[in-house]
Specification:
The protein is mainly alpha-helical and 223 residues long. It has one domain. The protein has 9 helices and no strands. Helix 6 crosses helix 9, helix 7 packs parallel to helix 9 and helix 8 packs antiparallel against helix 9. It is globular and about 55 Å long. The mean pLDDT is 83.
Length: 223
């Protein structure tokens, strides 16, 4: 399974490196989103600073939708999905490989967006370790859920519009937990529930999504 996961992840990342879709389309889109947020809330810099964590993760979530659609679109071209089915690769390995490829792209995107948020939203990073753990846990959950629901919607004609409707409610808990875990590190604000508790919740969501994807991806691939 792990060998197959590395093969699929390497294949997807090589495709993205050569096509530069993520670099030329997804990254500019994400940067544009946080810039528009800055323009919309600029009259009140205090609100912009306090909302920085939430706006950052909303931009990441929108970008994750594009990355997942791109990942599944590659499989839908020229019968690649059928070739994967007949290749003998472990379906769990295929799922993990696609999730890892999406996660790597999202982590690189988050570095760019994080820099943009610090510069545009006038925030101070007080907990780099907390932010790093939050990014890893949240990205794992987003990538796993996106890869699973992307495969579910892949065979449908309206997959471009159906995927957000399926995925956004599922990853809403990840968005909330990631925002709360990041807020104290970005704004220095304390909440009733500590960032450690939110990090633990993110870890639970990541494990659930990854575990469910490993079990369910095989039947989805066959369909």
């Amino acid at each position: 399974m792990w060998r197959d996961a590395l093969l699929v992840a390497g294949k997807d990342l090589r495709i993205e490196r050569r096509s530069k879709v993520a670099l030329q389309q997804i990254v500019p889109f994400a940067v544009l989103v946080i810039v528009l947020f800055a323009f919309a809330l600029d009259p009140d810099r205090g609100v912009l600073t306090r909302a920085a964590a939430g706006l950052f993760w909303v931009a990441v979530l929108f970008s994750a939708l594009l990355a997942v659609q791109r990942s599944q679109g590659v499989e839908g071209a020229d019968g690649v999905r059928d070739a994967l089915r007949l290749s003998g690769l472990d379906p769990a390995g295929v799922f993990l490989g696609k999730a890892v490829a999406v996660a790597v792209q999202l982590l690189l995107l988050e570095l760019v967006l994080g820099t943009g948020v610090v510069l545009l939203y006038d925030v101070d990073v007080d907990g780099a370790g907390t932010l790093a753990l939050t990014a890893l846990s949240a990205t794992a959950g987003l990538a796993a859920a996106g890869s699973l629901y992307g495969a579910l919607a892949a065979g449908l004609r309206v997959r471009e519009t159906l995927l957000p409707l399926l995925l956004l409610p599922v990853v809403a808990p990840v968005l909330i937990a990631a925002t709360r875990a990041s807020e104290s590190a970005l704004t220095g604000t304390s909440f009733e529930v500590s960032s450690g508790a939110w990090l633990g919740l993110l870890g639970v969501f990541a494990v659930l999504y990854v575990g469910f994807g490993v079990l369910a991806y095989g039947p989805l691939l066959e369909d």
